[in-house]
Amino acid sequence: MIKLIHMSAAAITISLFIMRMYWVMTDSGMMKKKWVKILPHVNDTVLLGAAIYLSVTIYQYPFVHHWLTAKVIALFAYIIFGSFALKRAKTKQQKLIFFFLAVLMFAYIIMVAMTRTVTGIF
Length: 122
Description:
There is one protein chain. Helix 1 runs antiparallel to helix 2 (34-57), helix 1 (2-25) runs antiparallel to helix 4 and helix 3 packs antiparallel against helix 4. The protein has one domain. Helix content is 78%, strand content 0%. The longest helix has 24 residues, at 2-25. The protein contains four helices and no strands.
């Protein structure tokens, strides 16, 4: 059940990120809505909580097991790239570059999770 929650929250995370990026690129007023500012953080908290629970229940931990370490490092990269894509980058071109980098990091996290190897499918 926790794995399903974790996977569902991950799907919601990337969906919300793509939707918010669309709104940023189209200069939509949706980015000013209160729920748009709150919901991603609530979902990401569920995602992180489920991840920690799974890590403890399968007895595999970051900085002990390489694949989980890779996921944690990629998560930080995803957060940084996503922050630049949605807020910090100055131009739309820069925002798009950071958006694609964030999506690539997210895809890498999924590949590592599926294969439990640092190299993912490669």
